[in-house]
Amino acid sequence: MLKLSLVTGLLSLFGQLSEASYTTTSNHSENQSTNVAQDSSAFRPGQVWKDESGEVINAHGGGLLFRNKTYYWYGEVRGEKESKGVNVYSSKDLYKWKHEGLALATVSDSTSDIVRGCIIERPKVIYNKKTGKYVMWFHLELKGKGYEAARAAVAVSDKPTGPFVYQKSFRPNGHMSRDMALFVDKDGGAYHIYSARENYDLRIVRLKDDFLNPTTQDTLLFSNHREAPALFRKDDNYYLITSGCTGWAPNEASLHVSKSLFGPWEKLEDPMTGPKAKLTFGGQSTYVLPVQGKKDAFIFMADIWNPKNLKDSRYVWLPIQFKENKTIIEWKDKWDLSVFR
Ligand code: DGJ
Prior knowledge:
CATH superfamily: Glycosyl hydrolase domain, family 43
Oligomer: single chain
Largest sheet: 5 strands, mixed
Bound molecules: (2R,3S,4R,5S)-2-(hydroxymethyl)piperidine-3,4,5-triol
Distance between the termini: 55 Å
Number of domains: 1
């Protein structure tokens, strides 16, 4: 018990120190300008991104879902510090986004896990063909408990735009669950990838057919203190991008590849190139989007956190290139989908 609280104390101190250094060294500099993205047919990583009504997009630590010829972007709704739930935006072209509202909102009921004051992070939504339900998983921290609860939580909707109905929260197979991703494989099987054991372990668990519950097929991927998992599949290879654990401060990303979701995973070279590449361009991975209708077209998504005002955190979307067996994510100030064949 004493050992655990010592570790927790050191982790929290480390988080605070790295947040302090982040605020003096970073904050939308170098790669990012404070310009607003002007045109609606290009991505401008690191710049303010507004929705169709002119409001700044508030969907951090997010992920996308493609259904009925439409992309849905789900992400954390942030105030300056507080967590307000999950926003959903829709788009046909990935450049212009319509705010569809709050997919999941925190509530006033003090007996609910998602009472205002809780922390909702890294929401991801997948569609279950068997049940016809949209299933959201997110990292939940209970009100007033900091990051101690370390739970995965589930909500369900009949429509991609919600409202999602909160179901429950738990630690998958008894393991802590903080940063997380969901992945649906070609055979329709779904998986939850999550940071466990105070973020020292990254684990993967297959979900039951309803996507609402974990199975016991739950494996350790690696124990090297990783978070922010983003998993994708190209041909017969699975790729996994993760970050280190330095609170809101950026650090070096890593890329692993495997022929099987349950490993073994082989570490590849850091794919990031360009200014601040060794700090993931000042960002932290959140998702990799397979672009519809284009072969081998994937977009790497990251968040440039602003811990002083989380709502003002920026988005980095960059194309993933595969060149001579190398995976490359190169910084671009501006780009569009024509980079993909
Ligand atoms: C890093 C995680 O990736 C974020 O989602 C968030 O939990 C911060 N840590 C909190 O410090």
